[in-house]
Amino acid sequence: MATPKPNAAPLTLAELIAQATGTSVLHCYQCGRCAAGCPQNQPGAMEISPTRVMRLLQLEAAFVDDPARADGFARRALQSPTPWLCLGCQACTTRCPQGVDIAGAMDVLRGQALQRGLAAKDRRSGDIRTFHQQFLAKALRRGRIEELPLILRYKLARGHWRQDAALGPAMLRRGKLKLKNSHSADTRQVLKAIDDLRRSPRGGP
Ligand code: SF4
Ligand code: SF4
Predict the structure, then answer these.
(1) Measured from the CB, is residue 54 less than 6 Å from ligand 1?
(2) Cα(52)–Cα(48) distance, rounded to whole angstroms?
(3) pLDDT single digits (tens) 88-106
(4) Residue 46 banded pLDDT, cuts 50, 70, 90
(5) Structural domains of the chain in order of their starting residue, each with its CATH number
(6) Which of 87, 93, 95, 128, when mutated, tests ligand 2's pocket best, judged by the most ligand atoms within 8 Å of its CB?
(7) Which of 1, 33, 105, 173 reaches 20 to 30 Å from 202, CA-CA?
(8) Which protein residue's CA is at the shortest distance from atom 4 of ligand 2?
(9) Residue 129: partners with Cβ closer than 8 Å, 6 or more residues away
(10) pLDDT-derived band of residue 1, with 50, 70 and 90 as boundaries?
């Protein structure tokens, strides 16, 4: 990933997203199709819609000469639960007439929110953030994850021992959870792909 020169202004979120996804949120013309197709954009779920997140990113870029205001818009986007509630389903990205990778933008926002210590503090976002961090830590270190240890670590961290417990037996019966790890995958290829991505100009996780 390109790093800003010393004393250069830090990159805006829109610029970081452009680096990571190759698409620009500045092309968004607020048609609302992303929000209309988003399964998480329901009352009581997302607090601000994907369309509004795109607007906040545009406002940060527009006020880049007024750092205090720009920072306010960036913080509003980064502190929102919306990036954490995003499922990464790509419905928005495939519907966008302007070719904006909204799902990719949400991924960048999650990473930036963690880096800057601004991630949403509500309980649901905290649950998703913990799972996200544990999943990534394991996947990036080992090149694969095992479902059962991942679930146990998550439950230990968040204390939701009984939540979803009733689903366990059915998942085991259907082979969705395995008590024994399989070692068939060549994880070296996965680790090499992650390493290549990190070294690429677009950067990696
Ligand atoms: S679908 Fe694309 S152009 Fe329309 S509001 Fe969403 S990001 Fe903007
Ligand atoms: S990728 Fe995220 S923001 Fe886009 S439609 Fe799916 S849940 Fe909504």
Answers:
(1) yes
(2) 6
(3) 999 999 999 999 999 999 9
(4) confident
(5) 13-121 (1.10.1060.10), 124-172+184-198 (no CATH)
(6) 87
(7) 33
(8) 92
(9) 84, 110, 114, 119, 120
(10) very low
